[in-house]
């Protein structure tokens, strides 16, 4: 399976939590915290469930909550897809 891209992750976040004004994941946005971007814990849990459903990426809820930035969550998701 190809690596999940930041665009893929952003699409899933928007599907699960809606478009948050100013929450762009381009440039330095990937290093901003989910809190700074306007995404709460429920949005992250929903995102993890959608990643499992759509891409088969099974993430532990605790690990998802510990991933404070989109970059960290993307890294976690891509590490989970490796054999």
From TrEMBL:
Keywords tagged on the record: Phosphopantetheine, Phosphoprotein
SMART domains reported for this sequence: PKS_PP
Pfam families: PP-binding (PF00550)
Gene3D superfamilies, alphabetized: ACP-like (1.10.1200.10)
PROSITE patterns found in the cross-reference section: CARRIER, PHOSPHOPANTETHEINE
MF GO annotations: phosphopantetheine binding
Positions of the Carrier domain: 3-81
Domain of life: Bacteria
Keyword Nucleotide-binding in record: no
Protein name, UniProt field: Act minimal PKS acyl carrier protein
Organism: Streptosporangium saharense
Lineage: Bacteria, Bacillati, Actinomycetota, Actinomycetes, Streptosporangiales
């Amino acid at each position: 399976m190809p690596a999940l891209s930041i665009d893929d992750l952003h699409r899933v976040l928007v599907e699960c939590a809606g478009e948050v004004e100013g929450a762009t994941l381009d440039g330095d946005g990937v290093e901003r915290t989910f809190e700074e971007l306007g995404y709460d814990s429920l949005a992250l849990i929903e995102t993890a469930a959608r990643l499992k459903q759509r891409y088969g990426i099974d993430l532990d809820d605790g690990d998802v909550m510990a991933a404070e930035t989109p970059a960290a969550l993307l890294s976690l998701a891509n590490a989970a897809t490796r054999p």
